[in-house]
Design brief:
The complex is a heterodimer of chains A (365) and B (335). Chain A has 365 residues and is α/β, with parallel strands linked by helices. Helices cover 33% and strands 25% of the residues of chain A. Chain A is globular. Chain B has 335 residues and is of the alpha/beta class. Chain B is 35% helix and 23% strand. Chain B has an 8-stranded mixed β-sheet, sandwiched between helices. In chain B, strands 2-1-4-5 form a 4-stranded antiparallel β-sheet. In chain B, a hairpin with a 2-residue loop joins strand 9 (227-232) and strand 10 (235-241). In chain B, helix 4 packs parallel to helix 6 (160-173). The two termini of chain B are 31 Å apart. The A-B interface holds A 45-46, 177, 191, 194, 221-227, 229-230, 248-252, 254-255, 291-292, 295-299, 301-302, 305, 307-312, 314-315 and B 52-53, 159-162, 189-195, 197-198, 201, 216-220, 222-223, 246, 256-257, 260-263, 265-266, 269, 272, 276, 281-284.
Amino acid sequence: MTAPLLKIEDLRTYFYSKSKQAFIRSVDNVNLEIGKGETLGVVGESGSGKSITALSVMGLLSAGPGVITGKIGFKSDRVQKNLLQDLDDFVKLTMKDGKVMAVQKDEDGWQERSEHRMSKVRGKEISMIFQNPKQSMNPFMTVGRQIAEAVQLHTEYKSEQAAKERALDWLDRVKIDTPRLRFDNHPFGLSGGMCQRAMIAMALSCEPSLLIADEPTTGLDATIQSKIVDLLAELKADLGITTMLISHDISIISRLSDTVAVMYGGTVVETGPAKSILAKKDDQKHPYTSALLTSIPSAENIRGKGYLQAIEGDVLDTINIPAGCRFYGRCNRVTDRIRERCERQEPDLREIAPGHKARCWLYFD
Amino acid sequence: MSKTILEVIDLKKHFFQRKGLFSLGGQQRSIPAVDGVSFYLKENETVGLVGESGCGKTTIGRTILRLEKPTSGRIIFDGTDITALDTDELRKLRGKMQMIFQDLDAALNPRMRIREILNEAITVHHKLTGAEVDKRIAELLEQVNLKKSKLSNFPHELSGGEKRRVGVARVLSVGAQFLVADEPTSALDVSIQAQVVNLLRDLQKQLGLSFLFISHDLRVVELVSHKVAVMYLGKIVEMGMSGRIANKASHPYTHILWSSLVEKQSREVGKKAKSVQAGKWGVFDFERPLEGCRFAPRCPVYEAKGGPDICTNAASEPVLREIEGGHQVACHFPL
């Protein structure tokens, strides 16, 4: 593994629910690493904290009650820093038995320092593709203008003409037909797939070191989906860009990723090389990952016309996180040997094979 | 041989759109959302309807249930022609055919508790006493595997999977035998999706339900359906047993749809299916003159053959014809 470009350590992002008088622990002790030039796929059900992790990295959660602590180490050729450095000063956690009991946060101070730092990083060093391209673009500006604006802001192409040329160049690279015509379209004039292409062009036009793609193909038709995945694969091969790919669609993750992190209930339950984690047969993995893989309607399932293997129960309620393993209530591989530990104590993320970590008592002695 | 519960003959549903605010009474533009669709559904059978968004899948479902008035064509349900029923008769019909809506946040009244939602559905169609209603509700909850404690909750307090179960319970409560399931698993996580798919299959076995299963998720459709119909721009372009459609597709469009499954592609990395690459992937366009084969502008076969006239000639629009045991395709050059 190359030196990590992004190293997230013990990231916690909590929200406070006034009506429930409790913390929603959306992201709770997340540890991740992305090596330079690699693609990390983040999978998990909705509510598992995938997107919140990404937004925390982007510093887009500073407003509101979001509480962020931990370390986000970012090391590119141009910038090397902990994106959350000194922000802890504004947050005071009251801990008891390793659990956060109360949080106090100086919202304004936090935000000011975070914004000051992130404005130099966001867009230029880390850029993001959002799930809903139409909603994340400005409906009042033409698509081309929006890309050119980003180019002017973040790169050495400062003149209007140069920025426009550059934007056109990128529209062409993401395979939009007749980029010159599309340049003057507003987002609503483009189809969903084309809008997503424009979004990708915008994100890459400033040549960031890290691209975060949050559900880039969700909501698109199967044919368009595969085109976007093709495009991402091609860009990855051409530019060698480091990517954090978030999706609940395992087929997309397995196509594009080198390493995979599986998230459940706000934490990472398993990380490792994509091949060993997403391989169907291998039993050496977290029970949640196995269950997730078998619940996908796959070619084998269809041939047998059998039932799908559902994971019983519901996704974890991130307000009342149980004391033991987060997956304990739905796990079908609890044995008598480990039952007590599963119920009482949360396992930590430990290496179970070279480069392959899991958070499960099954593999610990 | 089980009996045919639903037959749809040359169904058309055109929507009309005025040109603009200042052209009142001017030329109306017609949008043929469903343009001549025929199929039938047997008792205890599931027919899957697939296609890209905007191809008219949902409109078919809504028109069959007479939530939309068909422009022309006939719908025969359980032996009676329901194309021109009036409101009173339709109301009786709703006890037999129902729809599971795609967006349950919109379909469940946010100000009613689950108990009230189910109660209302039961009492609208059946005259039951309070105790009988309670018994029926308990029965329904068991059928859809929902906890009794959820009855006093509001819809927003339930998770996606639970809401889906409530939607199914409500449909069952009126005693419907034929269900249109419109994207019942979209917006659900795979683990929950599996629960819902299993639930629908169980119910079909227990209660002998028939489903029109609308989805753009090819894998799910392939799994739950006996027969699959593939739609493109308001027409069925191919229809047959689900295994055949998935593995021996004859229409270029079906072939492209299934080979565009990312899962399939990752297995054959490197040797990308040629048909996927070929063809112009323009945007879906309802406004272009619909002459000849609708798929021609995107069709790799059409391109490979150098644009034969037969494909774009208005007089020779391909019609569904049988190629092998129940497998029908509308294409001049089936694969």
